[in-house]
Amino acid sequence: MKEPGKRIKESRLKHGWTQEDLAEYAKVNLRTIQRIENNETTPRRKTLDLLFDVLGIDGIEPEKKPLNKYMLWSSFLTLLIVTGTFLGWTRRFKMFVDGERTYRTFTGWTGYTLFNDYDLQNWLLSITSISLGLIVVANSLGLIKNKMKYILAQLACLLLYLLGVLGWSTRQALELRPGLFLIIIATILLVVAYRKNGTKAGANK
Predict the structure, then answer these.
(1) Residue 189 reports pLDDT greater than 80
(2) What's the predicted TM-score (pTM) here?
(3) Which of 97, 89, 81, 112 has the alpha carbon at shortest distance from 178?
(4) Contact 143/137 with Cβ under 8 angstroms?
(5) Three-class SS of residue 181?
(6) Quick check: helix, strand or coil at residue 176?
(7) What's the mean pLDDT in 46-56?
(8) Quick one: DSSP state of residue 41?
(9) pLDDT of 205 over the 80 cut
(10) Distance between CA 199 and CA 182 in Å, rounded?
C-alpha cells in the first residue's frame, strides 16, 4: 500500500490542483499538506479524511496490530503477583487457647522471615516482585531497554527470603501458604518470559 503522502500528491496532480488549491478545498493548512506529501509527518486521521474526501480517495483501513502475547502474559503474571501479596504467605503457631492451637497468618504486607538473624520483611519482597513485573510489562511495551542487572538483584532478594523461610522451619512451627508459592512461581515465570523475549528480539535484529 502506498504511503498517504504519495497517494495524496498523485491524486492532486491528476486533478490539476496546486497544493494551495487543495489546502483551500479541504480547509487544511498549506504547510500541513506540504509536510504530508513530503512524508515529514504522520497525519492525523481527521486531516487524512478531509484530504481523501476532497480528492475522492478511498479511506485507509486502520492496520490491525497483532496480539502481543508477551504483553498479555507479563501483565497476567504481574497481576498474579499483586494478588499473591494479599493472600496468606505463612502461618505460624501463636499460642494455645482452651487447649487448642491458634495460628497467625502473614501476608505479603505483614510478617517477616529471618536470614542469619536479619529480619527480611514481607513487604520488601512484595514491592521487589511487583516492580519486577512492572519492568517486564514496560519492556513489552517498548518503554525501556534491558534491565537484567536490576532483575537479578531482585531475584537475589527472593533467594534470600526463601533461605530465610527454610531457616524458620527448623526453629518453630511454620506452614507455607498459597500466596507465597504464587508470588514465587509468577516471579520466576516473569524472568523466563523476559529472557525469552530478549533472545527473540536479538534474533530478529
Answers:
(1) yes
(2) 0.61
(3) 89
(4) no
(5) helix
(6) strand
(7) 88
(8) S
(9) no
(10) 26
The answer to whether the CB of 35 falls within 8 A of the CB of 44 is: no
For every residue of 62-129, DSSP letters joined together read: PPPPPP-HHHHHHHHHHHHHHHHHHSEEEEEEEEEETTEEEEEEEETTS-EEEETTEEEEHHHHHHHH
pLDDT of residue 158: 87
Surface-to-core class of residue 103, CB atoms within 10 Å of its CB (0-12 exposed, 13-18 middle, 19+ buried): middle
Element (H, E) at 30: helix 30-37
Cα 189 to Cα 171: distance, rounded to the nearest angstrom: 31
Which phi and psi (to 5°) does residue 175 adopt? -120, 135
Q: What is the pLDDT of residues 168-184, one digit of tens each?
A: 655 566 788 999 999 99
Task: Collect all residues with Cβ–Cβ distance below 8 Å to 24 and sequence separation of at least 6.
Answer: none
pLDDT digits (tens, 9 = 90+) for 128-165: 999 989 988 888 777 776 677 778 888 888 888 888 88
What single DSSP character describes residue 60? P
